[in-house]
Design goal:
Blueprint (H helix, E strand, L loop, with lengths): L4 E9 L7 E4 L2 E15 L41 E9 L7 E4 L2 E15 L13
């Protein structure tokens, strides 16, 4: 059985980061996992025990997947021209467990988990700016 071939004249990618993949060619298995703590603070107060992923259940919870549907399907394909031709690809960025892939893949498993935390200073309800 003849596989499709991808032909790209020009590709420009500005950035690939955080467990992301840029792959040219076929692959049997692609797996990428990215975990991140995004912490925003009003005051620069740091503690030496920060950054423990185990402290946040989001990083250990099972990801719910839809059960696979087992159904017999009969089909046939005929690629008159097995070449996928692309003139130009321009990508600003691939980040956080993403993939830019030119080719055939059998299995792809991608996961990105991000915990966003905002630590704001307490606000005084009786402010002099309120005129009270």
């Amino acid at each position: 059985m003849l596989q499709r071939i991808t032909c790209v004249d020009h590709i420009k990618i500005d950035s690939v980061s955080f467990s992301s993949i840029f792959q040219i060619g076929d692959s049997e298995q692609i797996q990428a996992i990215s975990r991140a703590l995004a912490l925003q603070r009003e005051a620069e107060i740091f503690f030496d025990n920060e950054g423990n992923f185990n402290a946040f259940p989001i990083f250990s919870e099972a990801i719910p997947f839809q059960p696979a549907v087992e159904e017999n399907v009969t089909f046939s394909t005929h690629n008159i021209n097995p070449v996928l031709k692309v003139r130009n690809i321009d990508i600003l960025g691939a980040s956080s467990s993403s993939v830019v892939h030119l080719g055939n893949s059998r299995n792809i498993d991608m996961e990105a988990r991000v915990k966003h935390i905002r630590q704001l200073l307490p606000r005084n309800n009786m402010s002099s700016e309120d005129g009270i």
